């Protein structure tokens, strides 16, 4: 990365000192992650958001829903900055508040809303989290989905899982013992989600029809290909991958789990990793004694994670050093209140 920009980021961060706390998700570029005070998966970053209450500014190097969650979890006492407002998440955008309300009405019409506990993946907007909080549900991440579902099924006989159908299905089938038929897909673009009331009543899990376009690129063929090319390779994938990929993988887990697994792996072992490319490249660079490769032949960056680059980071840090808060992410008080209920429920999971 540009040495001039690296120097400017360093200078601005030094000038801010304890005034700023920089959080970085594992999918961030190397040029950005080097300035993070804490790096983590979505769960760790949610836990860490409030770890430095004396810092008036949090610079969140990640995507919009993560910055919103940090604002909610710090109760607006700290100002959360997202260096580029265009850093959204296409999966989070697949569930809008109006669509989720409409879905709930359909569940009411089918006579099952009282039995349903909503569970939303962290990768959702604050108003979806608030909806879930209002309806007695919980937020989850890829590292605690099973625990969140165990909790939800202790409260009701059915779950509406938002917005990632793959994380929901993979957890339901592989960790909760459900059959594929127990999980039905609710399509927000069809009346009643494309389901009959009977199908809604028979389902154990209603999966919102959302997905991650980055992880959606991996297929069973990617796994078969790499196994044919690299004998003895271990296939390690993120649970946002399609069910056929996860079924054929050796290990499944969040970004933090992926990092720990590679760190603990013996020298000389081979790993095909099915997750975002910045992370896989960083792991390959950090472990030259292991053969670490990307699971697919085509490259797979998350374009919105990549929006946060060094120029945007420098711009936001320099602005803060002048006392000017740019790109603040602020969730309104009522939404924040109910979203916090669902987030706190996650943080309190056994
Ligand atoms: P985790 O960091 O929780 O594994 O999530 C991955 C992701 O897609 C974040 O957008
Ligand atoms: Fe969203 Fe997928 Fe990018 Fe994560 S990797 S931020 S789920 S689009």
TrEMBL record:
InterPro entries tied to this protein: NadA, NadA_sf, Quinolinate_synth_A_type3
Q: Which Gene3D superfamilies match?
A: NadA-like (3.40.50.10800)
What keywords does the record list, in alphabetical order?
A: 4Fe-4S, Cytoplasm, Iron, Iron-sulfur, Metal-binding, Pyridine nucleotide biosynthesis, Transferase
Q: Where does iminosuccinate bind?
A: 25, 42, 121-123, 142, 238-240, 255
| Enzyme's top EC category | transferase
- Where is it localised? Cytoplasm
**Major place of residence:** cytoplasm
Q: How does the cofactor attach, per the note?
A: Binds 1 [4Fe-4S] cluster per subunit.
What family is this?
Belongs to the quinolinate synthase family. Type 3 subfamily.
Which HAMAP family does this chain map to? NadA_type3
Q: What is this protein called?
A: Quinolinate synthase
Q: Which organism's genome codes for this protein? A: Actinomadura rudentiformis
